[in-house]
Amino acid sequence: MAEKSKVTLSVIKADVGGFVGHTNIHPDVIDAAKERLHNSKEKGAIIDYHVLRCGDDLELIMTHDRGPDNSDIHGLAWSVFVACTEVAREMKLYGAGQDILKDAFSGNIRGMGPGVAEMEFVERKSEPILVFMADKTSSGAWNLPLYKIFADPFNTAGLVIDTSMTGGFSFRVVDVKGGREITLKCPLEIYTLLALIGTTSRYMVSSVTRNSDGEICAVVSTQKLSLIAGRYVGKDDPVAVFRTQAGLPAVGEVLEAFTFPHLVDGWMRGSHTGPLMPVPFYEANPTRFDGPPRVIAAGFQLCNGRLIGPHDMFDDPGFDSARRRAGEISDYMRGHGPFEPHRLPEEEMEYTTMPQVLESLKGRFKKCE
Ligand code: F6R
Ligand code: MG
Ligand code: MG
Fold first, then answer.
1. Which of 113, 217, 361, 369 could be bridged to 101 by S-S, CB 3.0 to 4.6 A?
2. What pLDDT score was predicted for residue 220?
3. Residue 270 near ligand 1, beta carbon < 6 Å
4. What is the pLDDT of residue 354?
5. Can you give the pLDDT at residue 348?
6. What is the pLDDT of residue 234?
7. Would residue 152 show up in a list of annotated catalytic residues for this protein?
8. Assign residue 168 a region: left if phi > 0, alpha if psi is -120 to 50, beta otherwise?
9. Do the beta carbons of residue 155 and residue 247 sit within 8 Å?
């Protein structure tokens, strides 16, 4: 029997310029991205696409049959970001080309600034997909919800009730500072997993597979912009992609993990912690103190690679209490002003101007007994 053909879902994102400041994207920039991806679809380079935005981040959601890390697909995304940067420059939008860290494309967009989450799989009889996009935070923000979704039965009832999930899931974890990775098989290794991924600034879950058959369930973007550039250049503002239902966590089990607005790094100047607020698309405008950090969720049904959707998954009063709570937590955290733990510890602030402040005081520090 012929092997069933695989589809690849690629979500590639970048901040190419903000409107106004770092809060949103100008509609002309989004139109420029749509026009280019429309042309690529017409030429058959991709099967389908959708362009969305979360805060000041431009999100390209594409399907094709070329597999992950394909140079044509990455090159297409790169050319879209370069073209959109040009549109942003013409309007003097803020931080135009912020995440475009290299001058020329060299075959793979990883390590060049944009964030990438890609997965390849055989499309099931029905394939419900969730794409999460966040602004004003970094990839470690997914660690807590990923743990709840794939390892915590208090979140995911299917871990107890559905025999196709009781074998558990494996987490691949990247050490972004050590340049290495490890796979931990849960539930057996949940304590070890937590020992690592509780350190959200260093250990980041990059993908999850099902133990019973190795099926890919989730992938996230783990690029750390500050490590690529060697200095603070903006936040990662990561994406995460989930396959759901029929032996995988249900749509509602995946979304449930976001009812707890956990504290994440990346608010104002990439130097503060704040609650991750789940919002509908039209509320992904982080204007309060450049935040608080936001997450949106786009739902799709895949149909032979076609993206049927998006459905705005957090546009549900069921998430109102999480939003309210995030607002209250924001008030509380802001009350700390420039003090930790609202302001991040020195080594995590990653902002260019703080070392300069300390440098200017160098001569005034006296040795103490
Ligand atoms: C950007 C971000 C913002 C900026 C802040 C200062 O993702 O987190 O909070 O860091 O608006 O930006 P600059 O230094 O460009 O004035
Ligand atoms: Mg920005
Ligand atoms: Mg952003």
1. 113
2. 96
3. yes
4. 75
5. 76
6. 55
7. no
8. left
9. no
Q: Which numbered atom of ligand 1 lies nearest the CA of 290?
A: 9
What's the CA-to-centroid distance between 153 and ligand 2, angstroms?
37
Around ion ligand 2, residues with a beta carbon closer than 5 Å are: 15, 18, 22, 56, 95
**Model pLDDT, residue 81:** 96
Does the annotation mark 15 as catalytic? yes
CA distance linking residue 166 with residue 261, whole number of Å: 27
Answer yes or no: are the C-beta atoms of 32 and 289 closer than 8 Å: no
Residue 235 a catalytic site member: yes
For ligand 3, the distance from its centroid to the CA atom of residue 238, given in whole angstroms, is 9
Torsion of CA 90, 281, 228, 94, to 10 degrees: 30
The ligand minimizing its distance to the Cα of 287 is 1
Greatest Cα-to-Cα distance within the chain, rounded to the nearest angstrom: 80
> What pLDDT is stored for residue 54 in this prediction?
98
CB 62 within 8 A of CB 116: no
CA gap 243, 52 in Å, rounded: 19
At 30 the pLDDT is 98
From 13, 136, 224, 235, active-site residue: 235
**Hey, CA dihedral for 283, 285, 288, 292, is it positive or negative?**
positive
**Which tokens hold the place of 267?**
């608010």
Round to whole Å and give the CA distance between 196 and 147. Answer: 12
268 CB within 6 A, ligand 1: yes
Q: Side chain identity at 302, as an amino acid letter?
A: L
**Ligand 1 pocket test, candidate residues 15, 20, 22, most atoms within 8 A of CB:** 22
**What tokens appear for 54 in the block?**
């979360």
Ligand closest to CA 234: 1
- Determine the pLDDT at residue 214: 97
pLDDT mean by block of 10 residues, the chain; 369 residues: 83 96 97 98 97 98 97 96 96 91 84 92 97 95 98 98 96 90 97 97 95 97 68 75 98 98 94 97 97 98 97 98 98 97 83 76 88
268 within 8 A of 330, measured Cβ to Cβ: no
Q: What is the rounded distance in angstroms from the CA atom of residue 122 to the CA atom of residue 65?
A: 11
Look at residue 228 in the predicted model and tell me its pLDDT: 61
Cα gap 62→8, rounded to integer Å: 8
Ligand 1 atom nearest the C-alpha of 266 is 8
Beta strand pairing call for 277-278 and 294-303? parallel
